[in-house]
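Shift notes (night). Ran NAD-dependent epimerase/dehydratase domain-containing protein while the centrifuge was going.
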Amino acid sequence: MSSESRGPFMRAKSARISSQNSPGQSSVIVHALIFTMQILITGAAGFIGQLLAKELLNDPSHTLVLTDINEPPIPAGVKYPQNARTVTVDLLRGADSVVDKSLDAVYAFHGIMSSGSEADFDLGMRVNVDATRNLLEALRTTCPGVRVIYSSSQAVYGQPLPEVVTDSVIPTPQSSYGAEKVICETLINEYTRRGFINGFTLRFPTISVRPGRPTAAASSFLSGMIREPLNGEECVIPVEDRSFKSWLCSPKTLVYNLILTLSLPSNSLPPHIRQINVPGICVTVQEMMDALVKVGGEEKLALLTEKEDSTLRPILDSWPTRFDNVQAISLGFKRDGSFEEAVRDYRLSLTQ
Ligand SMILES: NC(=O)c1ccc[n+]([C@@H]2O[C@H](COP(=O)([O-])OP(=O)(O)OC[C@H]3O[C@@H](n4cnc5c(N)ncnc54)[C@H](O)[C@@H]3O)[C@@H](O)[C@H]2O)c1
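Came back to this:
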């Protein structure tokens, strides 16, 4: 990524660099301009925050503030762990404490996921809406015009939907989580139109294969049905229909698209329409099982149980299963080649 393409976000810092010399040579000290970006990640103890931090901390041009209500770890094995600091704070009360005027960009990932927001309306509204508004207000006051990359979701859409969702389909969410995301998308549009921030909203597909444990997302099984069997554990699939389709994106491709968004020119979208549907691929439960068999072997299927869940099903059925990503692709976003590749990536990660 060239420094020019990052435009106004890059910050030049003069640094003293002393070179390693061979014996007998005098030491050389040079002054160089190092371009760095100061980036805040909220929800940084979570899955996507950690994934992104890991990638950004392998590049010396990023310094990170990682914040979460739970203490965010600095990802292990990165090249520049010293370029990150962590702040443990509830964004509902402490948004001001993580924002300062040196920030060049913010990834807003904090949140309560879909099942969690459906189970506890007040908690979902407080964290997903009120805390995001608090953050935006703090940014508006302290670092106006800062780039904000907000994590929205395909859950903003609800039925009825056309077979292929285009950028002009109006979101009609059928979950509290989706409704909360639409509220925040509108805030991002409005704060950008007013010049308070320079926002982009990325509507993520379901991310799979996600490492770790099952989550409070209705989509949790879309990772679990691969991850658990590959780890020798059982997983319940809450739909009995193997032709059930989902719109998925691998962690690797998501991180690529998140980093790309740092350098998108502001005027690549109108000031009052900042949403981008992040590219995904449409995969059925049967195709996911097939990928599991190819990567993990036939015997892994014995660890899967199909059992209809009448609470989750209406949420799952309300989500779109196919998008026309022409806008995102024209902006340079990538799409996965196949789901099998995502399964192979996950299996490889178990050995690293
Ligand atoms: N993972 C996916 O498949 C997916 C899909 C679509 C959208 N998204 C969105 O991407 C974002 C990140 O997702 P994730 O999978 O990493 O979620 P996650 O649940 O792993 O992480 C969310 C983090 O937010 C933190 N948090 C909760 N309340 C907070 C508060 N009051 N103050 C500060 N931090 C708080 C949690 O501690 C957690 O670490 C979320 O906003 C989510 O809605 C994720």
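The chain has one domain: 7-207+250-279+319-337. The CA atoms of residues 249 and 333 lie 12 Å apart.
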